[in-house]
Amino acid sequence: MAFLVSTLSSAGIIHRFPCEGVLEVDVDKGRVTICLVEYCADERILTREWAAMNPTLYVTVGPKERDWLLQENWLKNIRLADIVSGRMELASAITDTATFGRPSSLGAASIPIYTKGARPIHYEAVEPVHADRAFTVAVGPSTVMVNGVTVIHKQASARLVLFKILWGRFLDNLKNGIEPDDFPPMTLEDIAELVQTGGNKEVEDVETIRRNLNRLQTDIEKAVKKYTGAPIGAGDIIQTIPRHVTGDDYGFRINPVSVMPRLFSAVAPDLSEEK
């Protein structure tokens, strides 16, 4: 997304960010939506109805994703690699999309334009901070507990590695007296570098790291709700936050507002059913 933004800025094209993975630009022929399909956060834009009614240029990143697009002659799509290599100009593709407008004929079937295979994981939007929520977190040698519930078990070694990396940075920030709002997030690259240093091969690439952290956020939320009934959001323990005002770059951190560190005790009661 950052490359697309840079390319638009260099061409003097004003753009907006309606949501993650999506840009909007206005040209002489009207408004065009640019959708980075693998990271689009708005499912509506990935439907044929949207594409038919709103001039949209779909951009694919990986080598296989273009084959996942709906095969319609009127559907405008371009590979990011072609833009980067200079084989195609983004500005020209936008103009072509705006000029083409809406297709003259379209069947009535309601089908998505990008569905084959599992939907690529993307970063979730930041949840609002709830200052009235507080969770005790205890990190042991092979498990992690939140409010007395084991949320990372000893068999989940990959998740434990990632959590301990974030936890270590969290404790360092506390020790250094950093204000909660100023706790810096760790990028996927930051985390990957520390994972590689530790020699853990399970989670050394950024996509695997992101997938594990996204699922861990959801699983922690579900476990705490199930066993304690306490109100909790996916970002109350591990936050996903933008690192720049444009929202192009995201990072992770332990929530400095709602998390309270607690000494780990192997004999503490476990409220969860799973041991």
Question: SSE layout and pairings?
Answer:
Elements: H1 2-10, E1 15-19, E2 22-27, E3 30-36, H2 48-53, E4 56-60, E5 76-79, H3 80-85, H4 90-100, E6 135-139, E7 144-146, E8 149-152, H5 157-175, H6 188-198, H7 206-228, E9 238-242, E10 250-254, E11 259-261
Parallel strand pairs: 3-4, 4-5, 6-11
Antiparallel strand pairs: 1-2, 2-3, 6-7, 7-8, 9-10
Helix pairs in contact: 5-7, 6-7
- In oligomeric terms, what are we looking at? single chain
Tally of alpha and pi helices: 7
Shape designation: elongated
Topology order in helix (H) and strand (E) letters: HEEEHEEHHEEEHHHEEE
Radius of gyration from the alpha-carbon trace, in angstroms: 22 Å
Parts with pLDDT < 50 across at least 5 consecutive residues: 118-126, 244-248
What is the strand tally? Answer: 11
Structural class estimated from helices and strands: alpha/beta
Q: Roughly what is the average pLDDT, rounded to an integer?
A: 80
Work out the count of structural domains: 2
Estimate the strand proportion.
Answer: 15-25%
What percentage of residues falls in helices of 4 or more residues?
25-40%
Head-to-tail CA distance between termini: 42 Å
For the largest beta-sheet, the strand count, sense and barrel status come to: 5 strands, mixed
Strand order of the largest sheet: 1-2-3-4-5
